[in-house]
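User: what does the whole thing look like in 3D?
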Amino acid sequence: MLQHIAFWLWDFLGHLHPLAVHFPVALLLFAAILELFTLKNFNSKLRSGIDALLIAGSLGAIISAALGWLLYQDGDYSGDVLTLHQWIGFATAALGVLTLFFLYQIRKKDKFKQVKVYRGLLFSTAIGVSVAGHFGANLTHGSDFLSSTLPWSKDYETKGSDNFRLVALKGDTAKLTKKQEVELNTEVRAILAHNCYKCHGSEKVKGDLRLDGKHVAFKGGENGPVIVPGNPQESEIFKRISLPADHKDVMPSKGKKLAEKDIEIVRFWIEKGAPWPDDGTKQNVFRVAKLEPRNPVLPAPSNNLSNPVDLWTNQYFAKNKIKWPSLVDDRTYLRRIYLDIIGLLPGPADLESFSKDARPDKRALWVKKLLSLDNDYALHWLSFWNDALRNDYSGTGYITGGRFNITDWLFKSLKTNKPYDQFVKELISPSEESKGFIEGIKWRGVVNASQRTEMQAAQNVSQVFLGLNLKCASCHNSFISDLKLDDAYAFANIFADTTLEINRCDKPTGKYVDARMLWKELGTIDNKAPVKEKRKQLAENLIKPEDGRLYRTIVNRIWSQLMGRGLVEPVDVMDNEPWSQDLLDWMAFNFVASKADLKELIYQITTSNTYQLPSVGFKEVAQVSNPNYKFKGMVRKRMSAEQFTDAVSSVITPVFVDSNIKYNPQIRPSFIRASLVANNSFLTALGRPNRETVATSRDSQANLLQALELTNGWRFNSVLKIGAEHWKANYKNTDLLIKDIYLKTLGREPVEKEIKIAKQALGKSPGVDAIQDLFWAMVLLPEFQIIY
Amino acid sequence: MNWNRRDFLKNTSAATLAAMAAGIPLTNLLSSCNSKSNHATADTVILLWMAGGMAHTDTFDPKKYTPFSKGMQANSVLSTFKSVPTILDGINFSEGLQSIGNVMDKGTLIRSYVAADMGHILHSRHQYHWHTCYKPPQSVSAPHLGSWIAKELGPLNPVIPAFIDIGQRFTLGEAEELKAFHTAGFLGNEFGPFLIPDPSAGLESVQPPVGMSSSRFEKRNKLYYDLISKSPMGEYGSDYQKESLKRSMEQAYILLKSPEAKAFDLSQEPKEIYDIYNTGKFGLGCLMARRLTEQGARFISVTTEYEPFKGWDTHDNGYTRLIDMKKQIDGPVAQLIKDLEKSGRLDRTLVILASEFSRDMMVEGRPDAKVQEQVEQPDIIQDIKNYGMHRHFTDGCSMLMFGGGIKKGSVYGKTADERPCKTIENPIVIDQIHQSIYHALGIAPDTNYLVEKRPFYTTPDGLGKPVMDLFS
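Assistant: Here's the predicted 3D structure for the full assembly of 1260 residues, as structure tokens:
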């Protein structure tokens, strides 16, 4: 019993080591720094302070070293770094004591000749404590903890992407368990897949070596085996990846040297006998999301929360120690829902009546009201779907009859809020009106086998509806997923009149494969059926409730549109891990249960407290897609080309005239919405994509070409000028004009300083030029362009 | 507010850093660490684009001349112009290109460019391939050559946009197909072309808006920054959208105010020089390119402009129309080379003259893979409108390259002297052309970015190799 308690106590004290070490590090370093200021005068005023720091620091070093020894006994750590850390730590503690001794000699015995020795020792101690500390930090945080955050570090982009803990495995000095072997082997195979398969796989077999399977890997290449289990130093593979980057024999021969961490994993794996469990190969090298839907049990209501989205967020916040901030004010909320749901700015009257609305559930009621504006809703979401379905009024292919427009079908589908399963079905198994998506874009002439329209259909259905990248696999076995060339052709054959001959990297192989689903769980395709029938079968299979993938993908896309970032990111890679699996699963499940109603989904999200949190801005765009991203609220968005143009149209003067309309939805809006006109240089500059390829997100950063278009582009400036003429005629009073322009553009009254600046710019009786210039400045303000 | 060059440079480097850190698209880990090497022989590229398919046998690779006569055999016609000597021994050009012939001691003539075989021919598809090195359609939006260069090297002078495209309007036939490759694609709009459709109106693109005085322009800009600084939005702190918007607006303002913008003002050129260049839009585009080079431009494309059945796209009257086309290019191209040499800039400026493919009177496509014919050619020619190279020919095209480390007075490749006048020596394809350009600029051959996790290289699969024989 006593012994047991003792063990517990030792462990506990050992775990105090990482805490305790901070004292000697800080104290001794600071002592050394202060010592620098006494170089001229040993007995400076600082002396007594340094003495105290040194005494406390040395004592701390001894205690830390002792605690460190206990932690070592605990057995979680081992390896070269540990040994280094350990001995430098002990040496530092000893040095500290020695330094104290000499200090004592000088101070009490006046042996001033020993000042140099003392200082030498002190600085050595300071260096020692830093080095020991550094290695210690490497042990706890990993050797790339600090350096990986540097933009020029090779680990920068991959930081945090792996959950693999080599340290944890290394702790077990004895034999690895079966589970650990599988884990380690999977990790090694992932490294091989990302770095070696390209030249040593099924496509290319350089040096007669393949690494994409157990037997071929152990068989070795033209010079014999490359893996000697148990002996990394004798294994050619380890030798070659460890060579300096500029060595002629280094592997990978093309591209970058492997990360130190990856080399270490390979080394450790070989040292451990290069385990390659047969059942481990079933484990995927790449993360694969579950296909089936899941209905996690909702957390109990708490914190006055009732919207299920909030219950999940609440759980997430609790787990991540994030506090609920207070929700945004009415003005911010109204601006958000207007822009997010119908793509327009709220007018001053809307803002006023919203703020005066005293109903406790007014936010939900206004969301409902906006969702019921069918035309505005459809005209806003039209742009999102045009990007995704690469539907446009002009573009390549039309010239030779190789492309079909689906705007009429799309607009009406959105306007009537067609259930999403029906929507998908009509796109995949289309009528004349909706066939444009599946028919793709056909250029004149002969195209690459991976770009024939059947393959385009396979790629685009996978990307848009399933968040799956089939592009690699349509040319060769994928290097980024477990998809094979066969899979891509089998899927493409659903869209083909006759079975396509498999082409590998555009070279015919003489092989064929029957049409089949990417997931056999979703059903079968009758290979002999005509293409129309096959597409119908595909559509039926894909929209089944069992297809969790389809519904998670759309839920994630809508979430991303509203919240500025997907639960899963990028939105086209649904195999990536969401920041809350429960929330995604629950929403997808519930979406199916509520008849795949997109407006209902938007309603649920936009009325949640989660949506009403203050927006979050990021210094760098990369932080948004970082795998370590933590959700804290909507990520600030920039207005799309269409939102910006429509805002200018509504506030200043319509940007487009009737003759610009490319699709007439038979409604009479107060101005022509940007989603109804052909792409032009102005919209392009603002980020509307040319819809030659599927686009599921837009660049939210500004650039020079865009700024030039806004600064001296004729279209924008002439619109502002015409607008200024109207305003001049309507406003005789400068104060009123300033107040109104602020209300209409920014949804608020100007503050004192702003009034002063604007007045100065406008003068007593504002001319057209002055008003035009004020307009220009107002709509270019970040406050106008950012959805916050 | 006081704007100066140093501030601007600071901003740009911050922008570059931000872009680096942003990593979208992610710089591929497979790519060489540093795409810019020290072996660069050129800083600037000028592409002179002969849009529409320039017949090699009627320009830089003349064959046996058969003058027009009623009732002549079409198959007997290889060239519709006389050959005239150039400054190079034994090398002749087609009549009408004497001025260029006289500067061939400063560059290399390539007579063996082989365009891709993509079946039934569409000009814009071949142009897409020439400019991006990828055959459309693509599942990823492929960047233009100029965009790659803009991305890898950035502007030479931060005030001048890195990629300038002169002379093409996008309102004509096949405009959508042209737009599809006049783009930075996945690299992002930031690296897209700065379009000057008409060089004589080019100044407007880099000046304050038409009708706005310089002082008003300055006041407007000041108003903008005053309002930003007083906006209570400031409390939200900085984020990348806001920063990139402010930064871009600053850059635009600086460009529009800069003395370098005068490069776009052709009226500043001495009249005698202006007149040499003024053979039309293309000639003036060459002049603007030269002026931009002096201010530190990175990549400039000047085109004779593609419009179906116009310019070099001679579906009829080939002979008559080429007289005019040669007049458009001969003087300006030669003068451009001479001017660049005189100012010492030719050494670091790579000038390329090229076309998407060539033409022939009989063969559509290539001799071993003929494709669907698009031009009716009578066997016996009665009318001069049928006298010319009217069919699209992909198996032997001429190109010129000058400066930027390219050999002087050299000829590369050869086509047959009899029909089909196809490449018979040193064939060169677009991947090699691109890699040669990148080589001259010091851009690593395996430069690539991860797009949707797949590496996308400057040339497909990063396989192209520069043609070292082109370099001295």
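In plain terms: DSSP finds twelve helices and 21 strands in chain B. The CA atoms of residues 140 and 415 of chain B lie 35 Å apart.
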